[in-house]
From TrEMBL:
Modified positions (N6-(pyridoxal phosphate)lysine) in chain numbering: 174
PANTHER family, alphabetized: DTDP-4-AMINO-4,6-DIDEOXYGALACTOSE TRANSAMINASE (PTHR30244:SF34), TRANSAMINASE (PTHR30244)
CDD domains listed in its UniProt record: AHBA_syn
Entry GO MF terms: pyridoxal phosphate binding; transaminase activity
Key word Transferase present: yes
UniProt family annotation: Belongs to the DegT/DnrJ/EryC1 family.
Organism from which the protein derives: Actinokineospora bangkokensis
Bilayer-crossing regions: none
A Pfam family assignment: DegT_DnrJ_EryC1
Needed cofactors: pyridoxal 5'-phosphate
Keyword Transferase: yes
Name of the protein described by the UniProt record: Glutamine--scyllo-inositol aminotransferase
Keywords noted in UniProt: Aminotransferase, Pyridoxal phosphate, Transferase
């Protein structure tokens, strides 16, 4: 992955630096409004990362000690970590073998009376069928981990449209970046106002509001909050990046289509693709190695020898030492996917010759 950055981002950041207002301020507010419009959300609240966004989302749902939150193990470990930040227990659900996402059936199988919320991840940009999950779990609140999903669609609308709570990432591995940074979107403006307070130590008004006031202002601290703010430097970059999003998605889907065409000549390797209920932005282009092929790490080593920078597939959090003491849940699909998948290079400047080299090198490695 390479972020698509240019002179526009550099100029936007320089303008903020010259203004003297580099902390959270007017650029953050503008970025929030533009992002909410893009994903068809009622409100958007910029934060320091998707992880802090997930933590805030669970916090405002009242998740705490003694509660359980259902999460996929087949996700970056931050998804489960956010549950622990609240003092609650992550309960791991298995995933669909084709999409890598949780389903209504996999979530329902691990619900208990202690379940306080469910986190549904749109893994690698592949949209999860959230409506199907909700139909299976009743009134249990859902938080969407949309870290990778900017530009993906679900049932004809952008992922995030009308969602109660969703968290997004702008890490450089995502389609659009602010260096570090994230966003929480919500369908409830009152909840958005509370999220804004919580990201800024629980203050009754922001620093920008205090500085804009005509006279002295004494703020109140209404509840225990956090320091989860985004800077105007980051938001200035984000505004330019957001304007590039449609073009980035279009390009990545072109690259994915070519990968699918080339991989048709490598029998036994299955590539990620659009689910029936939406379209993926191909934030990651992962492939699954068929039975009888070499172990995933051996294939990665073969690709590295050929000059191809591939990576292991999505991790399984329950297999990491940080969660080893929580018992060993039965997650056969998760364990198969994480052991047999790898991620191929995909970025805006990838050429046809480079894609051919990637696939030829993969073909050699899986035959070794």
């Amino acid at each position: 992955m390479r972020p698509l950055l240019g002179e526009e981002e550099a100029a936007a950041v320089a303008e903020v630096v010259r203004s003297g207002w580099v902390a959270q301020g007017p650029r953050v507010a503008e970025f929030e409004g533009r992002f909410a419009e893009r994903v068809q959300a009622a409100d958007a609240v910029a934060v320091s990362s998707c992880t802090t966004g997930l933590h805030l989302a669970l916090h405002v749902l009242g998740v705490g000690p003694g509660d359980e939150v259902v999460v996929p193990s087949f996700s970056f470990i931050a998804t489960a970590n956010a549950v622990r930040y609240c003092g609650a227990t992550p309960v791991f659900a298995d995933v669909d073998p084709t999409t890598g996402n949780v389903t209504g059936a996999t979530v329902k199988a691990v619900l208990t009376p202690a379940t306080k919320a469910v986190i549904v991840v749109h893994q690698g940009g592949v949209p999860a069928d959230v409506a199907e999950v909700r139909a299976s779990i009743g009134d249990v609140p859902v938080v969407e981990d949309a870290a990778c999903a900017a530009g993906s669609t679900l049932h004809g609308a952008p992922v995030g449209a009308g969602v109660h709570l969703a968290a997004w990432s702008f890490h450089p591995r995502k389609l659009i970046t602010t260096g570090e940074g994230g966003m929480v979107t919500t369908d409830d403006p009152e909840l958005g106002a509370r999220l804004r307070r919580l990201r800024e130590h629980g203050m009754s008004m922001s620093a920008a509001q205090r500085h804009a006031a005509k006279g002295p202002v004494l703020e109140d601290y209404l509840e225990t909050g956090f320091n989860y703010r985004m800077t105007d430097i980051q938001a200035a970059m984000g505004l330019v990046q957001l304007g590039r999003l449609d073009g980035i998605v279009e390009r990545r889907r072109e690259l994915a289509a070519r990968y699918h065409e080339l991989l048709a000549e490598v029998p036994g390797v299955r590539a990620v693709t659009d689910p029936a209920h939406g379209t993926t932005n191909y934030q990651s282009f992962w492939v699954l190695l068929g039975d009888g092929m070499p172990e995933r790490n051996a294939v990665l080593a073969g690709l590295a020898e050929a000059g191809v920078s591939a990576r292991r597939g999505i991790m399984a959090a329950h297999l990491e030492p940080a969660y080893a003491g929580d018992g060993a849940p039965e997650l056969p699909v998760t364990e198969h996917l994480t052991a047999r998948s790898l991620i191929l290079p995909v970025h805006h400047d990838l050429t046809e010759d480079e894609q051919q080299h990637v696939v030829r090198s993969l073909a050699v490695a899986v035959r070794a």
